[in-house]
Amino acid sequence: MARGPERARHPDRDDLEPWLFWSVTVSMAAAMSVAGTVTSTTNGQPAAVGFAAGVVVAGLAAWGLPSLSLRLVARVALVASGIAMARFGVVGPVLQNGTQTLLLWVVAAIAVLVLTSGLDHRAVPAAPPASGVVGRRTRSGRPGRTAAHVVVVAAVVLVVVTLLAPYAVSRAGGSAAAGNGPTAPPVAGSSPLRSADSLDMTTRPELTDDVVLTVQADQDLFLRGDVYDLWDGRSWHRSRGELYALSGGRDVTLPPFDLGALGADVVRQTVRVEAGYSDVFFAAPTALRIDAEVPVAQTLEGVLLAPRRAMGRGETYQVTSRRHVLSEELLRSVDDEPVPSSVRAAYAEDPVTTERVADLADRIIAEAGATTTYDRVRALEEWMDDHVEYSIDAPTAPEGVDVVDDFLFRAKVGWCEQIASSLVVMARTQGIPARLATGYVMSERDPVSGTYVVRAKHAHAWAEVWFPEVGWVPFDPTAGVPLAPSDPQDDTIADWVLGHLVLLAVGAAAVVVAVAAGRRLVRLRVDRRRRRSRSWTVAADDRLTAIGTAAGVVRLPGDTATAYARRVDRAGPDGGRDLVAVASVIDRERYAAVAPTADARASAESSLKAAERPLSDNGVGQKDHFP
After folding, report:
1. Mean pLDDT of 553-559
2. C-alpha dihedral over 253, 255, 261, 262, to 10 degrees?
3. DSSP letter at 478?
C-alpha cells in the first residue's frame, strides 16, 4: 500500500533534540495554563477548566503544526497568554491571582524565550569559517549571546510589570467604580459577605484561600461588616435591623454613644470586591462616609448594606472612618465615668446563659483582682488563653444546650465566633457593655503593590466593649488562644509541595539559570584557549610551508602538515626531522581528540625558530611567533 506524502516540516524542527522540543513544549504549556487558570477564575469558571485548556492548546500547537516554525508557534502562544493575563485582571490595584501567579507566568515566559532563541539558527546552514581561522562563528550567529539578550529583556519586563505596574495602578487614584454585578448566588452559612439578621453559633464556617476583597489602606485594622447585640444561647441577632438612607447619600448617621466618630485618627480605605457576591460594605470602625456606585443603606448601629443590588467582582468603594488612638492608660482612666443608661440597657443586661458561666466569670475576675473595666476584660481574655483552644474543626454543640457553656466546660475547643461570643457573654455577666462584631482581618499584604489581600479564610469575629469617652473598643480573644493540636496525617508531602509550588518553581529556574551560566563561562574559557591554540596552529602551518617553499618543496593541496614535512625532510635541508616533529604537533592540534601538551607546542615552536633562522639570515621574513 502506497504511503501518502509526508507532511512538510519546518527546518527548525529537523534533527531537533528531544529534550529541547519537550522543554519548549512544557514551558509553553506552563505559560498557557497559568493564563487559562486566571481567565477561568476571573470569569467565574473552575480553575481546572482554564488549566486544561492551556495545556491542550499548547500541545496541539507543538505537535499539530509541524510545518510552522516551533519558535514562531511558541512565541505567538506566549504573546497570547500575556494578553490574557493583562486582560483578565492580573495587573490591577492588586495582583488579583497573587504575585506568585504572575511570577509563575514570568518564569515560564523566560524559559520559552531562552529555549527558542537558538531555534532560528537551526533553520539555516552555518556560515563558513573565516579565512585562516578554523571553526570560528560569526558575531551574529551565537545563540548564547542571543539568549543572554533575551534574559536581560525578560528581566526588565519582569521588573516593570511585577513591580512598577501594580504599584502605579494602586496609587493612581481610588475612586468608586461599578463592577460586573453579582456573578454567584448569595453565600450560604455564616460568611460575612452575606448580610444576615442572625448568626448561628452551631454552623461551622467554610474557610478557603479564595480572595474576596482587596483593600488599599495605611493600617491593618479590622474590617467590620456586621454587629450583633442579642444572644439567645445558640445564636446572635440584631435587635434593630431596620435600614435607613444615608444622609446626603454618603454620610453615615450614628447613635450618640458611638464615640469613635469623634476620634482624631482618620482612616481612609478603598475596598474592591473580588468575590462573586457581597451585599455588605466592610470598613474600619467607625465609618462616617462612603462613596459607592451601588445604593447604600445603614442600620442604627452603623452597619452598611446594599439592599437593592448586591455587588460583584470589580465593585469598588471608598470609606472614611475615625477612631481614637487607644492605650491601656486611656482605657483605665475613663473607668470612673458613668455608662449611659441606654448603653447599659442595650448591651450590659444579664445575658441568656447558665449559672456556671456567670460563676466562672466572677471567679476569674476575683482571682485576678481586676477592678477597672479594661482589667476585667483582660482577665477574662487571659483565662481563655490558658484554658481553651482554637480549631476550625472543633465539634459543634449538641442540640438543646447553651453554646457558650458547652464550649467553656465540655469542648474547650472552638472557632473564633464561639471564642468571641464567650468573652461577650462573660463580660455582660459583669455588667460590662459588650457586643459581637464580624468581618475580616487584614493580615496579608501584597509585597509588590502594598495592597491588602483579604481571603475567605480571614473571616473573623471579635468582641467590642464600650468605654466612656472612647466608645466601642475591639478585643480579639482568639489572637491569644493557642491552636488545638492537629492530626499529623493531615499534612502530606503532596500538601507541602503544593503549598510551596511557586518557590520550588522559582528555585528550579534559578538553578537552571545558574547551571547554564556556569556552563557558558566554562565554554568561554575553553573556546578562548582553543582560539589561541588554533591561531598558533594556523601560523605554525604557514611557517612550515614557508620553510619548505624556501627549500624548493611545493606543498600539494592534499598534504597534511606531517606529509609535507616528510617530503621536506627527504629534500635534505638541515632540521628536516625536527620539522616532522613540528608537523606532528600541528596535525595533533588540528585533528586529534586529545590536544598536544603545552610543552609539546613549546618544543615545536623552538624547532620552528631554529629552522627559520637561516631564512632570516638570508633576508626572508618570519611569521608571527607563538605568543
Report:
1. 86
2. 120
3. G
